[in-house]
Design brief:
Elements (H helix, E strand, L loop, with lengths): L16 E2 L5 E9 L1 E6 L5 E6 L1 H4 L2 H6 L4 E4 L11 H4 E5 L4 E3 L2 E8 L2 H9 L4 E11 L3 E3 L2 E3 L1 E14 L24 E2 L4 E2 L6 E3 L5 E9 L2 E6 H68 L1 H22 L10 H12 L10 H27 L6 H21 L1
Parallel strand pairs: 4-12, 5-12
Antiparallel strand pairs: 1-2, 2-8, 3-4, 5-6, 6-8, 7-8, 9-12, 10-11, 13-14, 15-16, 16-17
Helix pairs in contact: 6-7, 7-8, 8-9
């Protein structure tokens, strides 16, 4: 069996430093040359070779200059449209060769990621990149491989819990490499489309299939079965949330209906109270008027006057004891103004018409009496004739009125 190759770094990484504004500047080794293991969708392991001439090619090195730094690998290829969702800093300055490794300076600007790096939760590095695969198997330094990565082009640099290139590829807190995006790569356009599931190393150094999951606005690469369990759990939570929202809306509608019904009942009760209050006040006033001797005398006098004036019109045959004031007036108007319709007329209207008609009746009756009283003297036949003439012509005066 061929011996395991040891990879050499040509120098020591500078210790990380905190800037006055809290940012972190640190040197790291994002990747190296060598053979990397990838698990294919069918479960097979494919060994892919990164040759020094590809890893250290000027175009490849330049493509990693100033790329965004992320916390774990994002679930999508970074572009101008989505970088702000995932970026936690950037590669600062030149990207250079350091023995078998690539050396770069990181400027991390996100406080949470800085704390993770300082605590050791995340300290290894993993490149996100595009490449072309040359499906040519062979041996490299005694180790077999299945394909060669060509035209490597950087997209981002992730700070991860474990990277494919191993702990040596790290920020010296201590740190690893690579999410592969070999399928569906448009090299001419400079864009790379990651595969549906990236690969992550196991404790044995063999990659297992993972998928990206967004938690709290951050992307995490987790095993596929874990991702499916999280998705199912999230669906259950969403169903519970939707059910709670529906119950809340139903309760709001029922509450609104109850409030409206309560308001209607309150308004009805208030109307009844107001009506009864007015009736009570009217009863109190009537009682006070009844107990007031002056007003009582005025009512008696008014009744006596009404009956006296009305009896002249109605005659002794009509008994007014059982009639109230308005009934007496209507009876009088029934004789004096039979053509006037009084249904629905107010008390004031009836009173005004009564006063006018009775006054005219009294005036006419007074005129008849005056004509008879001033009959001219003379012989009896001529005086009687004048009196009879007065009686027979009185209707003409009524007609003129």
């Amino acid at each position: 069996m061929a011996p395991v190759r040891r990879y050499d770094s040509g120098g020591t990484l500078a210790p990380p430093t905190r800037l006055p504004n809290g940012w972190l500047r640190a040197e790291g080794l994002p990747t190296r040359v060598g053979i990397f293991n990838y698990r294919l969708p069918d479960g097979r392991i494919r060994k892919e070779l990164r040759l020094p001439e590809e890893v250290f090619h000027p175009d490849s090195m330049a493509s990693f200059r100033s790329v965004p730094i992320t916390s774990e690998h994002p679930p999508e290829h970074l572009t101008a449209a989505n970088t702000r969702l995932y970026q936690r800093g950037h590669v600062d300055g030149e990207v250079v060769r350091d023995g078998d490794y690539v050396r770069a300076t990181l400027l991390v600007t996100d406080d949470e990621l800085i704390r993770d790096m300082e605590s050791g939760v995340r300290a290894e590095l993993s490149n996100g990149y595009a490449c072309e695969l040359e499906e040519t198997p062979g041996l490299w330094e005694g180790q077999p491989y299945d394909a060669i990565q060509r035209n490597i082009r950087g997209n981002h640099l992730a700070v991860v819990t474990a990277g494919r290139a191993g702990p040596a590829c790290a920020v010296r807190m201590d740190a690893c490499d690579a999410v592969q995006v070999t399928p569906d790569v448009d090299m001419a356009g400079g864009a790379a489309v990651p595969s549906e599931a990236a690969s992550s190393p196991t404790s044995e150094g063999v990659a297992m299939e993972t998928v990206p999951v967004i938690i709290g606005g951050k992307a995490y690469a987790v095993p596929k079965d874990v991702a499916e369990a999280l998705t199912a759990q999230a669906a259950q939570y969403q169903q519970a949330i939707d059910a709670a929202k529906e119950e809340t809306e139903t309760a709001k509608e029922e509450s609104a209906t109850q409030v409206e019904e309560s308001k209607k009942a309150t308004d009805t009760a208030n109307a009844k109270v107001d009506s009864l209050t007015r009736e009570l006040e009217a009863m109190k006033k009537a009682r006070q008027d009844a107990e007031d001797p002056v007003k009582l005398r005025e009512r008696v006098q008014a009744r006596v006057s009404l009956e006296k004036r009305s009896s002249a019109v109605l005659g002794a045959a009509v008994k007014m004891d059982a009639l109230d004031d308005k009934a007496v007036k209507l009876a009088v108007l029934g004789k004096l103004a039979p053509d006037v319709k009084l249904d629905g007329k107010s008390d004031d209207y009836v009173q005004a018409l009564f006063d006018m008609e009775v006054a005219r009746f009294e005036k006419d009756r007074g005129s008849l009496h005056a004509d008879a009283a001033v009959a001219p003297p003379g012989d009896a036949p001529s005086s009687r004739a004048a009196y009879e003439k007065t009686l027979t012509s009185s209707w003409k005066r009524d007609a003129r009125r």
